[in-house]
Amino acid sequence: MAVDYTVIVVYLAGMLAMGWWGMRRAKSKSEFLVAGRRLGPTMYSGTMAAIVLGGASTIGGVGLGYQYGLSGAWMVFTIGLGLLALSVFFSARIARLKVYTVSEMLDLRYGGRAGVISGLVMWAYTLMLAVTSTIAYATIFDVLFDMNRTVAIILGGSIVVAYSTLGGMWSITLTDMVQFVVKTIGVLLLLLPIAVVKAGGFSEMKAKLPTEYFDPLGIGGETIFTYVLIYTFGMLIGQDIWQRVFTARSDRTAKWGGTVAGTYCLAYALAGAVIGTAAKVLYPKLGSPDDAFATIVKDELPMGVRGLVLAAALAAVMSTSSGALIACATVANNDIWSRLRGVVRPDGEAHDEVKGNRVFILIMGLAVIGTAIALNNVVEALTVAYNLLVGGLLVPILGGLLWRRGTAQGALASVVVGGVAVITLMATHGILANEPVYYGLLASLAAYLVVSLATKPTDAAVLAAWRERLAGRDPELVSEPVPAHQ
Questions:
Q1: Quick one: 289 and 274 in the same domain?
Q2: Which of 191, 274, 292, 370 could make an S-S bridge to 66, C-beta 3.0–4.6 Å?
Q3: Under 8 Å CB-to-CB from 75, ≥6 apart: which residues?
Q4: Which CATH number do you get for residue 119?
Q5: What is the pTM of this model?
């Protein structure tokens, strides 16, 4: 395994070097949090695809293929559909807002009063998303070095925290672009064809597996519907995704670059399912479907190639982990801490702004590593994250973009009612039940409609300023709006 170890060590060293290089570029808040809003189509597409395709999409996607066959592609497929919908219908408007967080968008649209509460919900989502990615290091490093779970989480998490803290979004953008290339080569160009060949080709796979493994809907209609609710809609509103949209050089870059990334996700979804199906032929009695990726890599790939594919798995985990980490820190600093202190500074070149965000990334990174060590179940942690996001924030965000009559009181009621409903239903029905997201979303929608219609319409001046900002005709407006209650 010496060659494989060398590949992995060189890759990890490269991640840290890019963090150091990014530190030299991140001299302002805009540079540190959104890469100066100047990514072109190639960089934007690659980094967007990298952040949405994490460990769950790679290791989990192969595991679903092992368990259900080709229909196991649906989880990652719905992620791609969500990214396509965001890019085609909303990303241009989001990019023109020139904000840093989703909560700032809500304050602009509704005139304040929802920032801290919506920030808390978004913070919980981004924290749990970062935790799930960090837990996945244990699986990869166990295959590589037979490493203790806690040590693996600390090692992988520390590398991500280091380069994210050093250079912020510039470091993350550079590392994500490398990770995108490594994932493409490792998973699509190497592991996919090798797995199919080792399994005897598609004809042999069909001969050895039940016919339902090749049924596009074999995973079940209700499961597919739940994936759409959680992942497709989750892609539309997550801070980690929006923060990447904010990095686009123009609204055209956000629209078409995101469309390319979404299409790439669809191909990645199918590749993971096919690899998992091949693994089922080769190893029909694995203890857990999530072991399929590591097993086929360890046993079937030649020296060197194995190291590159494991680096691809690390890349998948690190890209999502770093994106969720900077989103978590941005929300904690800008939407919660600054608002609770009553301090909202204008964007500027001041180094203390960069220093403050750097400190928050470090603090949140340590919290993520500690939480990841304490938790064991990746699926449950990810489900909690997306249930809170969709149940609490989907309605007020999309309502603000699509319905003029929505009000601040309606948005606030929607966040509170939806969030409480989701938490209550997870406690009573179980974290993995479908009811929390179904009924939480319905409760959020009902609260938004009823309270909005029962309260005074949003002030005309607020709506006028919102329309100007959406149209990109108000470039002088301060990037961090002061909420009305301050």
A1: yes
A2: 292
A3: 56, 57, 60, 61, 64, 227, 231, 269
A4: 1.20.1730.10
A5: 0.86
